[in-house]
């Protein structure tokens, strides 16, 4: 053989099973590593979901120590607040509760979209956050002491929303533009 030729290795029939075993071991190792990586990924996902659900479990509760406030005394930004009264009207996921002196519109979120959380004329205690003329309900207690927990509303964003423009300072009025000088009279033409 000269330096440009390469030697060809011939595989004998006896060595084929040994080579197949080495290939199989390599594939098993790769599969095992992949399964281990997938297992760790699943463990992380389950752990993350569990941690998230544990933080959400206390988000909506009924506070028996929270004293009801008269509806006429509600003011924006009161959090948390509770009102007690009769259900006057129902509009999908909203209803009106009255305490005899005033009325409040209660928003129940997605859970109340069927309009079956309360019944007209029913006595209820509603807890939540009063903002922009709505009581965003977190919990409703019925006359039979059963409690319906609702998803809490998102936190208020003071720099956005309907009242945000009125809270910003008004821009200063633009100064009037100076008067433009009068155009000069044309010069007499020379003959």
Automatic annotation (TrEMBL):
SUPFAM superfamilies: Hypothetical protein YgiW
InterPro entries linked: BOBF_sf (IPR036700)
Protein name: Uncharacterized protein
Segments for region (Disordered): 1-24, 148-191
UniProt keyword annotations, A-Z: Membrane, Transmembrane, Transmembrane helix
Biased amino acid composition, Pro residues: 171-191
Biased composition (Basic and acidic residues): 1-10, 157-170
Ranges that cross the membrane: 31-52
